[in-house]
Amino acid sequence: MVARIYNFSPGPATLPYEVLEQSAKDMVNFQETGMGVIELSHRSKEFTAVTEQAERLLRELLEIPGNYKVLFLQGGASSQFYMIPMNFLGKGRKATYLNTGTWAKKAIKEATLFGKIDVAFSNEKENFNRVPSAGEYTVSNESEFLYFVSNNTIYGTQFHNLPKTEKMLFSDMSSDILSRRLDISRFGLIFAGAQKNLGPAGVTVVIIREDLLDRVPSDIPTMLSYKTHADKKSMFNTPPCFAIYIVGEVLKWLKNMGGIDAIARINDQKANLLYEAIDSGNYYRGHAEASSRSKMNVSFNLPSAELEQQFITEAAQKGMSGLKGHRSIGGCRASIYNAFPLEGVTKLVEFMHEFERENPA
Ligand SMILES: *Cc1c(COP(=O)(O)O)cnc(C)c1O
Fold first, then answer.
1. What is the rounded distance in angstroms from the CA atom of residue 199 to the CA atom of residue 174?
2. What's the rounded Cα separation, in Å, for the pair 206 and 145?
3. The dihedral sign for the CA sequence 316, 319, 325, 327
4. Distance 176 CA to ligand 1 centre (A)
5. Smallest Cα–Cα separation from 339: which of 4, 3, 2, 1?
6. Cβ of residue 12 lying under 6 Å from some atom of ligand 1
7. Prediction pTM value
8. pLDDT band of 1, cuts 50, 70, 90
């Protein structure tokens, strides 16, 4: 095994070593075809099997009901910000959005181009340090759906319960899909850019309730219609083959790990270790309010910006990279997605204690 560092990057993020190793082999010769995996026709029987397996594993792991379609799209999670309203909010239709951070705000901006958007909650003034509780917002009756970002990657906040509403939910799960159990039947649509918890950049997974496809207008561009991709099983045009292949390998890895419940337990363990370290004194301060703390992205501050810089530099020298916080809130952030190993968290916690002892505030 090559020397690996602990990569706390928020995305693209660390992947299981087994997946990297297998994909390096398959890159040169896929299943004795004499061709690399990225040289196969997307319509070949070999590649069709790759896509079908990825979809099957995703359905199995997330227990996706039969009346949902799984799509593999391009354009990043950000393209879903406009595809959703373009497909579902034309002609003055209304939707409710919860503004819990940068990614929600960007989605709201795009949605406003197409429909009437009700922003039922925003805590931008508190620098997005929590998600709302059920009683804090109302969803109007005319709303088609309630849109929320299940994990706010930048601020390190996460919904620990699904928003309470009769309406169907639409959610950006880019940074926490497959990290915990989920009742898919509450959702009309879920999407996730792969590069955090699923695989490499380049593919966005969309899970969409089948009956919604009947509402897609026929006068929108073909490539931007969910119906196009659902009807053609994500093969209307050349899909992001390599990214889909890696997602399939990551899903195999996850299944071998014991699936969602097993990974959720490890995720709890990792997050608890870090939050305990933060709460053990006054040196480290978590950005998120305790009840909204994310199990995927742990954003925290040190007593000063200088100490934060020194912390990030010394951590990197000790083989822990990617700990710099997002430019919009500064400080530090440890992203600990499914593939991030427990030992890396233990090592970071040890370093946090050591750093505090050696650099008193
Ligand atoms: C990273 C991220 C995005 C943006 O993903 P792109 O694929 O770069 O467009 C959107 N939403 C959330 C929650 C994210 O973490």
1. 11
2. 16
3. positive
4. 11
5. 4
6. no
7. 0.98
8. low
